[in-house]
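Take a protein:
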Amino acid sequence: MPKVLTHAQLKSYQEEGFVSPIDCISVDQASQFFQSIESYENEFKEDVSVNIRVRAVLAFKWMIDLARHPKLAGALQDCIGQNVLLFLSGVWSKRPGTDTFVSWHQDGAYNPFDRNTGATAWIGLTDSTPEKGNIRCIPGSHRKIIEHEERFDKDNILSRGQSVPKVDVSKAVDLPLRAGQFSIHHELLVHGSAPNKTKSRRLGVSFACVPTEAKPLSGPNTGILIAGENNPGHWVLNKEPSFDLDPVGLEELKSVQAAYRDPDTTKLITEAIN
């Protein structure tokens, strides 16, 4: 029996590659987390995405707690198995009046693991609508890895501009979310998002996860366990923050970011996925 998802929702994930929307936290709770992000930005005079990248949960205790929320973690268990490890997380910001977008891509095309069974949960801290540039996806596109091109664009949130070159956008569907709701998509689902055309900010948090049974073929092998057990031991677990901006968590975050930026690591990952 599924823990959180209905049988119909689980079937949607298996056949279409996604399930959305799923209720998780209240609008008020989402607003509190939104304010936490903006407080950080006001204090440090920078967008949260500048230095809080790759594994953002290591900077904010509330973010790890959110990843382990029974509904969110339970839904991930329904999709990928009982032992769930978070290896990437980020804050996705689209400010009003900008051309910021995310190109069509597959998360898993750049994941150097021995299997493609992971999934990403994306939770809105604000409403995420078509006008605000919500996630769009191509249903059923999660069956295989598609070759990507790297198109570096200053407005593309993706660091390498990774893009699926030919996408039939007539098949695309929107995944709108109310603040506090989340979606889950398979790591090979082709998805992207358009610019925010409204007058208010769109903000969300993503949790990219794999079953702990997935074995890293190269690059970093660290992560955070959010459900189940770390079996059979392929992963080294990060030290976790005890409070927001805990030096312990920030030091771990610094180490993780350095590993992903290391040229030798980047080369190994590229070789592993090609």
